[in-house]
Specification:
By secondary structure, the protein is α/β, with parallel strands linked by helices. Helices cover 35% and strands 25% of the residues. The structure holds flavin-adenine dinucleotide.
């Protein structure tokens, strides 16, 4: 059994701590966040696990790493004490008649990057068979079957409960910079231990690690959560639009997460009127049943991103930094967490991951 100190209790901190506990290790958690995780990007996120539709706007690396995680998620969720909503119907990509060229452009990119076999074209009748509620508004769709999404806030709660049972978890003031000195003083203050007690410290502070990660930047994203009893969509939906493309991620009980803006900014202030209007107009254009939906939450956060928008596991004298998950924490999280745990135990056999390890 090894002893680890995990700093940060957002998405990656929770997943990593949980998997270390499962492997039989002792884990202390130190975070400026509350137990719910309200300060983390992972709590705000739509939690789409979309290796293909994300790769189309990036490259094949996204698909490779994403598929690795997609294979792990069902197995990981099964190991939790509660069933967390995990939707595997796939993603439908649609565009209004006036924006057909956007869909054509997306299809061309899909063919170029992933190949024509990566999706299925649906005509209006085929779309109606899958998602009756969309067929009135859209004549065609592209279906990407190998995609999923999950209920991130439920996942956070369940992981929080499990971790509080098995770990010593302390809320602290933000730790701006991790060094031998700050680790020593925090481990003494919060756990009455010496830093020497730990085999490694694992830095999962996301945006909070900006002082220690030179190229880290925030990419602001805004989402709206709604309850729409008149809407029955089971797929994740991407609406192609020249100005504000959006996605809709279903949750249980007619709840939906609508997102997300992508703004190069570290600004974490509340959702702007402009973004709210754009997101909600697009939502209403998707399905008229959203007119009577109730807004449950409007939230903004920043995605922690590195120069190439890909994640990294970076070796430090005291342990590892896991960062740069950008808009792919759910898409890349399991793959990178599993790889980090392998590195900690001196194992690694995956060429796939070498490029994400420094
Ligand atoms: C609007 C939006 C939509 C998104 N949608 C998706 C999606 O559909 N699919 C997907 O895969 N990804 C999505 N993401 C991205 C995903 O949320 C992030 O990639 C992921 O949350 C990053 O995980 P993390 O643990 O590194 O950071 P976070 O989840 O932000 O966690 C960081 C944790 O560290 C704590 N912390 C920060 N600073 C300090 C400090 N100084 N000292 C101590 N503790 C600290 C924080 O309080 C927090 O608990 C989305 C993000 C946003 C903002």
């Amino acid at each position: 059994m090894s002893r680890y100190l995990v700093v940060g209790s957002g998405l990656i901190g929770r997943l990593l701590s949980w998997r270390l506990v499962i492997e039989g290790h002792h884990v202390d958690i130190l975070s400026s966040d509350d137990a719910i995780g309200r300060d983390s990007a992972g709590y705000v996120a739509a939690a789409m696990i979309a290796p293909a539709t994300e790769a189309i706007n990036a490259d094949l690396k996204v698909q490779a790493l994403g598929q690795y995680s997609l294979a792990l998620w069902p197995e990981w969720l099964k190991a939790l004490p509660e069933t967390v909503f995990y939707q595997t119907h796939g993603t439908l990509v649609v565009a209004h008649a006036g924006d057909k060229t956007e869909l054509q452009r997306y299809r061309r990119r899909a063919q170029h990057i992933l190949g024509a076999e990566s999706y299925t074209d649906l005509n209006q009748i085929e779309l109606a068979a899958r998602e009756q509620d969309l067929a009135d508004n859209f004549e065609q769709a592209m279906l990407f079957e190998q995609e999923a999404c999950l209920d991130n806030r439920h996942l956070f709660r369940v992981l929080g409960d499990v971790l509080r049972q098995h770990c010593d978890w302390q809320q602290c003031d933000p730790i701006e910079s991790l060094s031998e000195f700050t680790i020593e003083s925090h481990s003494q203050q919060y756990f009455a231990r010496s830093a020497q007690t730990y085999d490694a410290v694992l830095d999962c502070r996301g945006n909070g690690a900006a002082q220690d990660v030179d190229t880290l930047r925030g990419v602001r994203g805004e989402i709206i959560r709604v309850h729409a009893p008149e809407v029955r969509l089971k797929h994740a939906i991407r609406l192609m639009h020249p100005r504000y493309p959006l996605y809709l991620a279903p949750r249980p009980n007619h709840e939906y997460v609508l997102g997300a803006t992508v703004l190069e900014s570290d600004d974490r202030s509340p959702v702007s009127v402009r973004s709210g209007l754009e997101l909600m107009s697009a939502l209403y254009s998707l399905h008229k049943g959203f007119a009577e939906a109730r807004i449950l939450d409007m939230a903004a956060h920043c995605r922690p991103a590195l120069t190439d928008n890909m994640p990294v596991i970076k070796r430090r004298s005291w342990g590892y930094q896991l960062n740069g998950f950008y808009r792919h924490g759910y898409l890349f999280g399991p793959a990178m967490v599993e790889e980090c745990i392998k590195r900690l135990s001196g194992r690694t056999d995956q060429l796939l991951f070498d490029q994400y390890y420094e």
